[in-house]
Design a protein that fits this description.
Mean pLDDT: 97
Largest sheet: 5 strands, parallel
Number of helices: 11
CATH topology of the largest domain: Rossmann fold
Order of helices and strands: EEHHHHHEHEHEHHEHEH
Oligomer: single chain
Strand content: 5-15%
Number of strands: 7
Length: 203
Amino acid sequence: MPTNRKVVFDVGNVLLRWDPFHLYRDLIPNDEKRSWFLQNVCTSAWNLEQDRGRPWTEAVASLIAAHPEWEAEIKAFDERWHETVPGTIEDSVAVLADLKAKGEQVYAITNFSREKWAECLIRFPFLQSFDGVIVSAHERLLKPDPAIYNVLLERYGLSAGECIFVDDSGKNVEAARSVGMQAVHFVEPIDLRAELRGLGAAI
């Protein structure tokens, strides 16, 4: 029988591996130059604005205007984005599938751009198996803002106390706890099944 525990997954680096290094290790072979580029041009903060809802076309154009000498490498972040996602984290995907097979409700809250999320739904069909998903770009809210967690609770009629949130970011985990959720900080190596079971999930 299903439990009253609802597991809420992050996607990036919980279900899908994501790291720009996978793309840029070949595009910028020099370690020092690659590190500088990712810290000063295609930065985490720049990428996060796409997760907040900025269109990729606008993001790329503005960055090329500021750094024209890096035009090809900037365009690659968009055009070859899927190379930053080499595949799934298989054990986590298996946990998700097992929860669904047992009749459990599963949800997701993810910082993701609108365009890349739509593409990933096609590339990774298991992402369509959630009972509900909150995508940051759709809401124009980002984790760890507590508001994005409350969107999930309100939209799907959930109580915070019945939710177990799984995320690789400590800040996002703490934010989930601040709204009343239980939470698992996903840092490999981790026995996700054991962690969830310990919090009352039927897995």
